[in-house]
């Protein structure tokens, strides 16, 4: 499954990097006027699902642009054909292809390809995380006030206003905040130590499935609200020590609700 995920992500990544039209525009909008889809999101999802159908015909798929099949094997592929579509639309480099395999509901393989960085992040459950062929390790937790924290914003106006309030309450207490624009890359940045921590409300499974496993296998803790798994309510990733403090503060700030 790892080989299949790596090959699918490499093919989609090369297609997106080399084939981006100069006049790329918005093909459709989804949950709001700023939640955009391009023709390349749709083509990338088709490329990935066609390849999976050939290599893993009995598996199910769940893709951001609508792919949804049940399958009969107990394996489900969770696909974000472009994570960071707005960056891709504007020709900004921080976008990725995210592919995870879940077996009986548990994520067992995660691959995030970031072609403009020349990096692919990968993990297999219980076998550690890698960036290209090097082991990936999250940083040791710094004191809260020295943490570089990544986050992101959803596409609904009310949710965004609330997310801005939460980030405004956090900013005075940390080293700084980053909004990269691809949740999958943000999670991998925790895995390789380019961020100390990351959190976001409102993610979909295709945004976080692969990156969450990669961050966890790199030594970070991941979760949602205290005692819960990462979900659309809240996804948090950070090394032990920092994780609990950030999760607690986010819970107090009500970062998990609109
Ligand atoms: C988005 C990105 C972004 C995050 C949004 C996601 P998309 O995914 O991951 O960083 O803040 O919540 O929806 O729409 O580009 O696949």
UniProtKB/TrEMBL annotation:
E.C. number: 3.1.3.25
Catalysed reactions, semicolon-separated: a myo-inositol phosphate + H2O = myo-inositol + phosphate
Pfam family, one: Inositol_P
InterPro entries: IMPase, Inositol_monoP_metal-BS, Inositol_monophosphatase-like, Inositol_monophosphatase_CS
Domain of life assignment: Bacteria
Essential cofactor(s): Mg(2+)
Keywords recorded for this protein, A-Z: Hydrolase, Magnesium, Metal-binding
Family note: Belongs to the inositol monophosphatase superfamily.
PANTHER family referenced in this protein's UniProt entry, alphabetically: INOSITOL MONOPHOSPHATASE (PTHR20854), INOSITOL-1-MONOPHOSPHATASE-RELATED (PTHR20854:SF4)
Protein's name in the database: Inositol-1-monophosphatase
């Amino acid at each position: 499954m790892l080989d299949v995920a790596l090959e699918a992500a490499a093919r989609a990544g090369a297609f997106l990097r080399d084939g981006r039209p100069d006049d790329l525009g918005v093909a459709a909008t989804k949950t709001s006027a700023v939640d955009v889809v391009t023709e390349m999101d749709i083509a990338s999802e088709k490329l990935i699902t066609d390849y999976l159908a050939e290599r893993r015909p009995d598996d199910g798929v769940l893709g951001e642009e609508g792919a949804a099949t049940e399958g009969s094997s107990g394996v489900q592929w969770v696909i974000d054909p472009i994570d960071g579509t707005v960056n891709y639309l504007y020709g900004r480099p921080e976008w990725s292809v995210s592919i995870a395999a879940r077996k009986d509901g548990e994520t067992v393989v995660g691959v995030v390809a970031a072609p403009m960085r020349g990096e692919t992040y990968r993990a297999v459950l219980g076998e550690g995380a890698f960036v290209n062929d090097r082991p990936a390790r999250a940083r040791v937790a710094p004191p809260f006030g020295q943490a570089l924290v990544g986050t992101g914003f959803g596409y609904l106006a009310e949710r965004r206003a609330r997310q801005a309030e939460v980030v405004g309450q956090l900013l005075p207490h940390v080293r700084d905040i980053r909004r990269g624009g691809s949740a999958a890359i943000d999670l991998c940045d925790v895995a390789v130590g380019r961020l100390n921590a990351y959190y976001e409300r409102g993610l979909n499974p295709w945004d976080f499935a692969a990156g969450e496993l990669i961050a966890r296998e790199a030594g970070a803790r991941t979760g949602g609200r205290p005692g819960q798994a990462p979900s659309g309510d809240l996804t948090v990733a950070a090394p032990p020590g920092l994780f609990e403090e950030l999760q607690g503060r986010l819970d107090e700030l009500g970062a998990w609700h609109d």
